[in-house]
Structures are given as structure tokens and as C-alpha cells.
């Protein structure tokens, strides 16, 4: 048997430690080093039996890991990922892949030039129910996709906003949370070519948006809407509905995405499907309902297993830097549309 892949972690905060929890269950990899200047990192590294470094460049030079997970603050993602790529080390970068599209373009270029893979941590794409939903769409069971409805309506506790940066410009839920939903909509329904949007911030009264309404036009002609707020006592969001993370008490049975096509419709995460026995028979005929079976599997574990195969050169990243950049470009277009009142197209990331 091959020796376990030596994986290093840059940024050992909440998400970095979650990655470690999942990694420690996998026999084919082990944590060899941690790079984090924070005071808590040394004890964490010792607990994991990994070497500890305050500076990630020193870690790359001395520990020479086979693969790296970057889970530090967003504005450091691209610089750290570039250092890994320059050192020839495959990297899993947490979402968002970066903060500015220009820096993301530099990462795309470096990854291609050096032929070093970058996987972006939009882990929901690895959730088996999303894999299944995509399969249903690709099999044509919904026919031509016409309407897409996405909901992200929940309440973050007031204590969440006691951390100052969460109240400051740039840290709103569009970039922090809706980026996941937008990534899934791209993954399931295809590229978005144009958006219109309204945002407001007067429920909580902070600089960041606390509610948003977005209209989406997909390249395949489907039209979508996404409404969101982090200030409403409501049950409709991936977090509360999917059961993916035990930290959110589940609202079983509530959908967060509704996809409707000419031959059928589907709710996510339930994967309930509606269709007519005879296509086109319409509203006087009973609409039949069925449910796709959902295979078991934990998205973060599946993402890590995929990353290990990517680092071993056995698979291409499911979401590379350019793909992650396209999701970021969509968030930017929504922000621009909300600020200007104009319809906006996401910037192209080749
Ligand atoms: N995929 C998901 O669902 C998900 C969920 C939460 C967070 N995230 C992402 O994970 C990243 C980290 O978020 P978090 O909630 O863990 O934040 P956090 O604040 O808990 O952790 C960040 C860590 O990075 C460390 N750090 C700061 N500067 C550093 C540097 N120069 N080099 C190395 N480490 C440094 C900090 O000391 C801290 O330990 C963010 O990009 C966030 O968007 C993703």
C-alpha cells in the first residue's frame, strides 16, 4: 500500500479544524503540518501530531507537504494558493477562491502554467443529493428547464454580529453564504448570463445587506429568482433543510430550491419529482409525484477523498480556480446590479 498523502493545513480556525476532523478519518492521508500565526494553533498542531509553523512559506519549505488545504481568511486565499502552486503542491482552497477577480485570474494562470491543480472548496457540489439532482436534470427528466426558484431565508443569531468584521462592508451574506447557493445553481442549471438585484440593510441596520432579491437569466434560457435574508425567522435554506451539518437543527421537508421544466419539476433537498403520466397533459390531469433515492455520504469527506485523488493526479478538480472564479464573478455582478439598479452580466473567466 502507498504511504498516506502528507497534507498540510494553512489556517487552523473553525473550517480548518473541520477539515482535520474529516481528514483524520481517512487512512489514505494524514496531517503533517499546520501553518497559522494564531495563538491557539500550536496546541492544535501538537494535538494532531503535526509540525507547527507561524508562516506558511516556511512550512512549505521545511515540511514539503504533498498537498495543502488553505482555510485562512478570504483575502489571503490567493496569495497562499499561489505559493503552493509555485512550489508545485496541489491545493484545496476554501471558498471564496479569492476576493478580487484579477487575483483569481492570476491563480488560474499559474495553476495552468505550472500544471498544478487547484480545487475550490464549494463542498456542497460533493453532496450525494446534489450529484443525484444533477443526474436527474442531465437525464432530461425535467425536460427543458424553465423556472428556478432558490430560497435562503433564515435567521442568524444576534451574537453572530458581535464579531466586528461581520458588520463591516464586504462581509455580507452574499459573499459569505449565498455564494454557495449561486455555485450550486451554476452547477445544476448552467451559467448565468445576466442578473438584476435589490439588496437592503435596514432590518439589522449594519453596513452589509441583510436581505436580497435577485433575478437570474441562465444561458440555456431558464429564468430564476433567489430571495434571501439572514434576519428572518424562516425555515427555507440549504443550511436548515439539507441536514448537511448537525449544527443547524433540521427543518425536514422544507425545500430550498425548486426547479421546473417542460416535462417535470423537482424540489431540493427532498428530490421530490412531479410529472404527468402523459407528457403535456396539463392541469386537469393528476400530477404524479415520486422521490429519487438519495445515497448516503458526507460532502466534506467526499470532497477530501476527491482532493486526495486530484493531488495524486488521478482526477481533475471538480471545481477548479476558473470555475470558482465564475461563481465569484456572479456574486460581483449581483452586487453591481444592486448598487446601480442595472441588469449586469458576470465578468468572463476564461
Ligand atoms: N465551505 C464552507 O462551508 C465554509 C464554512 C466556513 C468557513 N469557510 C471558509 O473557511 C475560511 C476560514 O473561515 P473560518 O470560519 O475557519 O475562520 P476562522 O477565523 O475561524 O479561522 C481562520 C484561521 O486563519 C488563521 N490565519 C490568519 N492569518 C493567517 C495566515 N497569514 N496564515 C495562516 N493562517 C492564518 C487564523 O489565525 C485562524 O485560525 C474562510 O475562507 C471561509 O470563507 C468555508
The sequence of SSEs as H and E is EHEHEHEHEHEHEHEEEEHEEEEHH
Unreliable runs = none
Number of helices: 10
Q: What is the third-level CATH name, the topology of the largest domain?
A: Dihydrodipicolinate Reductase, domain 2
- Arithmetic mean of pLDDT: 96
- Name the CATH homologous superfamily of the largest domain: Dihydrodipicolinate Reductase, domain 2
Tell me how many strands there are.
15
Structural class: alpha/beta
The number of distinct structural domains comes to 2
Largest sheet: 9 strands, mixed
Principal-axes shape call: globular
CATH architecture tag of the largest domain: 2-Layer Sandwich
The percent range for strand residues is 15-25%
CATH class of the largest domain: Alpha Beta
- Helix fraction? 25-40%
Rg (CA only): 21 Å
The multimeric state of the shown protein is: single chain
- In angstroms, what separates the terminal alpha carbons? 39 Å
Bound molecules: nicotinamide-adenine-dinucleotide
Protein name: Gfo/Idh/MocA family oxidoreductase
Short description:
The protein is an alpha/beta fold and 350 residues long. It contains ten helices and 15 strands. Helices cover 33% and strands 24% of the residues.
Outline the structure in words:
The protein is 33% helix and 24% strand. With 350 residues, the chain is an alpha/beta fold. It folds into two domains: 5-123 and 300-319, NAD(P)-binding Rossmann-like Domain (Rossmann fold, 3-Layer(aba) Sandwich); 125-297 and 329-340, Dihydrodipicolinate Reductase, domain 2, CATH 3.30.360.10. Strands 7, 8, 9, 10, 11, 12, 13, 14 and 15 form a nine-stranded mixed β-sheet that branches. It has a six-stranded parallel β-sheet with strand order 3-2-1-4-5-6, sandwiched between helices. Strand 5 (91-93), helix 5 (101-114) and strand 6 (118-120) form a beta-alpha-beta unit. Helix 4 runs parallel beside helix 5. The relative contact order is 0.15. The mean pLDDT is 96. Nicotinamide-adenine-dinucleotide is lined by residues 10-16, 35-38, 56, 71-74, 76, 94-95, 121, 123. This is Gfo/Idh/MocA family oxidoreductase. Residues 131-264 form the GFO/IDH/MocA-like oxidoreductase domain.
Amino acid at each position: 500500500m502507498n504511504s498516506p498523502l502528507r497534507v498540510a493545513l494553512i489556517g487552523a480556525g473553525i473550517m480548518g479544524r473541520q477539515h482535520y476532523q474529516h481528514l483524520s478519518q481517512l487512512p489514505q492521508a494524514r496531517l503533517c503540518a499546520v501553518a497559522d500565526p494564531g495563538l491557539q494553533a500550536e496546541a492544535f498542531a501538537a494535538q494532531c501530531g503535526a509540525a507547527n509553523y507561524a508562516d506558511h512559506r516556511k512550512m512549505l519549505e521545511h515540511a514539503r507537504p504533498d498537498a495543502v488545504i488553505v482555510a485562512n481568511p478570504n483575502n489571503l486565499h490567493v496569495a497562499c494558493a499561489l505559493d503552493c502552486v509555485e512550489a508545485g503542491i496541489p491545493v484545496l482552497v476554501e471558498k471564496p477562491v479569492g476576493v478580487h477577480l484579477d487575483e483569481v485570474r492570476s491563480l488560474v494562470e499559474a495553476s495552468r502554467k505550472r500544471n498544478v491543480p487547484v480545487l475550490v472548496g464549494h463542498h456542497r457540489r460533493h453532496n450525494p443529493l446534489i450529484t443525484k439532482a444533477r443526474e436527474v436534470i442531465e437525464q432530461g427528466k425535467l425536460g427543458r428547464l424553465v423556472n428556478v426558484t432558490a430560497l435562503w431565508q433564515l435567521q442568524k443569531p444576534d451574537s453572530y454580529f458581535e464579531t466586528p468584521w461581520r458588520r463591516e462592508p464586504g462581509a455580507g451574506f452574499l459573499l459569505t453564504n449565498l455564494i454557495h447557493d449561486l455555485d450550486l445553481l451554476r452547477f445544476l442549471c448552467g451559467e448565468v448570463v445576466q442578473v438584476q438585484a435589490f439588496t437592503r440593510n435596514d432590518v439589522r441596520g449594519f453596513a452589509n445587506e441583510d436581505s436580497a432579491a435577485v433575478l437570474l437569466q441562465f444561458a440555456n434560457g431558464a429564468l430564476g429568482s433567489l430571495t434571501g435574508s439572514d434576519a428572518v425567522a424562516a425555515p427555507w435554506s440549504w443550511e436548515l433543510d439539507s441536514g448537511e451539518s448537525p449544527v443547524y437543527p433540521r427543518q425536514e421537508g422544507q425545500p430550498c430550491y425548486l426547479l421546473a421544466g417542460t416535462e417535470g419539476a423537482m424540489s431540493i433537498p427532498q428530490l421530490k419529482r412531479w410529472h404527468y403520466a402523459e407528457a403535456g397533459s396539463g392541469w386537469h390531469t393528476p400530477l404524479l409525484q415520486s422521490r429519487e433515492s438519495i445515497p448516503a455520504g458526507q460532502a466534506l469527506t467526499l470532497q477530501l477523498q476527491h482532493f486526495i485523488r486530484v493531488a495524486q493526479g488521478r482526477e481533475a478538480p471538480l471545481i477548479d480556480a476558473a470555475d470558482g472564479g465564475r461563481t465569484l464573478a456572479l456574486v460581483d455582478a449581483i452586487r453591481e446590479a444592486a448598487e446601480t439598479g442595472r441588469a449586469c452580466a458576470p465578468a468572463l473567466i476564461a
